[in-house]
Amino acid sequence: MLRLISLFVLAFLLSFNAGADTLESVMMPGKVIQGHLKWEDDCKQCHKKFDKEGQNQLCKDCHKDINKDVAQKKGLHGKLKESRNCVECHTEHKGRAAQIAPINEKTFKHSQTDFELKGAHADATKTECKECHKPKVKYRDAPNACNACHKKDDKHDGTLGVDCESCHNEKSWKETREKFDHNKSDFALEGKHADVKCDECHKSKKYKEAPKDCYSCHKKDDKHKGTLGQKCTNCHTAKDWKEDTFDHGKDAHYVLRGKHATAKCESCHKPSATSLKLPTSCVACHKGDDKHEGTLGNRCEKCHVERSWSSTPGFDHNDTKFPLLDKHKNAKCQTCHKNGMQEKLPLLCNDCHKKDDDTKGHKGDFGTKCESCHTAKDWKLPSKFDHTRDTKYPLKEKHKDTKCVECHKGKLYGQNLKTDCYSCHKKDDDSKGHKGRYDQKCETCHIEKTWKTLIFDHDRDTKYKLLDKHRATKCDSCHKANLYRGKVKSTCISCHKSDDKHKGQEGDKCEDCHNAKSWKDAKFDHAKSKFPLLGKHFKVDCKSCHLTAEFKAAKSECISCHTKDDVHKLKLGPACETCHNARDWKAWDFDHDKKTKFKLDGGHKGIGCYECHRTPSKGHKLLISVTCGDCHSSDDVHDGGFGRQCERCHVSNTWAALKMGAGMSR
Description:
Blueprint: H1 2-14, H2 23-27, H3 52-62, H4 64-72, H5 75-78, H6 146-150, H7 198-201, H8 214-218, H9 248-251, H10 265-268, H11 282-286, H12 333-336, H13 349-360, H14 387-390, H15 404-407, H16 412-415, H17 422-432, H18 458-461, H19 475-478, H20 492-496, H21 542-545, H22 558-562, E1 580-581, E2 584-588, H23 592-595, H24 628-632
Antiparallel strand pairs: 1-2
């Protein structure tokens, strides 16, 4: 059964003629419009299965101008508030002549397009759609520029351009005041121009051809008959002809002063003049008034002013290269200017006053530059020249009162005088001074005020400060030879070797003990020597020990000073310090057990020193025997039979007590 149905369908399809030989043709609900005819058999060009939004995009892909409007939100489609499918307005398959984009002229809202209808455009009784939207032209392609439709209405013939809306509006061609502002044009309406009607200036509708210069319109009003030119604006304004704004100083670059300020324009600007630009030199107008007949040149203004010929405050000789000072002020012009201004006069003093220098002055020895010293006030007052300011050698103290010729004894500029003191004052040094021993640098110690005033400071200027008695010492006492070649040593001994009472015993550094105030004022610290002064030695006078100034000759042993004080008579030796100290003789301390090799014990403890130490000894080692037999030979009951070494058997407590084991060796 299924096979029969299949065969029936196949036979049905094969039965169609060549004009309807596709399935799309069979299924199509109706014919498409003439514009879509070429895609009628290709459904996928407009239809997308099961995708309505995709179908909208197919429309846009073909209608690119609509697609662009939607993207940019322009035109009718771009300004739709809600997104809609294309088929809602534009349905197809209604026949070749179907109108799938119908527009109702009565209900269509032109405000939803890019060209809103205003004024006369919005009045249907005045403007019909077909006047702008021509047949076979898309609505969207209708022109929106005024000139595109109203070119024939342009009474200006294009002279004002094609932007009609700059002046006109949609309501009426005649209403232009609201939009057009004459002040924004090349000719702003000012003063009385603001009240003038347009056609008084714009004789034709070609407004740009109207002249902008005053003279074109106001030639008949020119009272100057053209003698002052055609630029009325240089003097007048649009407010009133009588109001004059011309400033001769700023606008003509020639300031009117004095009598010029009251002169009439016609006095200078003659009707016969070919140009407004007149020469500005005085002589151009006043050559007939020149009483100098041209001898002082053509520049009258250098001396005279516009107020009056008789006053000449305009010229100041001080503004020239030769200011008139003092006596020159009273000299008449003709005294120097014998031939007027034609001759260029010299400016140097010597050119005029050479005879004064030859008869009463320096006779040319001081050169020709008189002005270096003298002024125009008086020859006798050389107040201008300042030796301190104008030369490299300032004059101080007594030099100030010295006459120029005492130093400058010939041609001033050929001498090249030396500036050192010695070159002038050698004779003073030889007769009253140091006779050349202190070299030629006098200024090191002396000043110009007087030879006796010294500025040399030995403490500041040398490495050897003068203290106490050295300050009162004369220079020659130390500096016996040439000051700079024979350098004086700074050690005390170099000058005071003959004063050394220690005969060199204390070395060369006198300053270790002495100062420059006095030899007797010594600062020696005995505690730093090999014999510090302790106890009663501290108060002892130096002379008690140091019998001469040869201090090192004094012995440091106690016995050398205290022989008479030795109550032991040398029986305990000369080294007193072994038992005694410098505090007191009675304060002694000697430990026989620790300081000697003979311990005092037993019967030895209480005996006196002299019982053993009987013989005087001058040496440091005492001459005394330490064996028992030397002292106890009289106590030996054995009569020497057991030898002299009693301690082998006996102890020091008593003779009767014997040591354990005594006599066993025997």
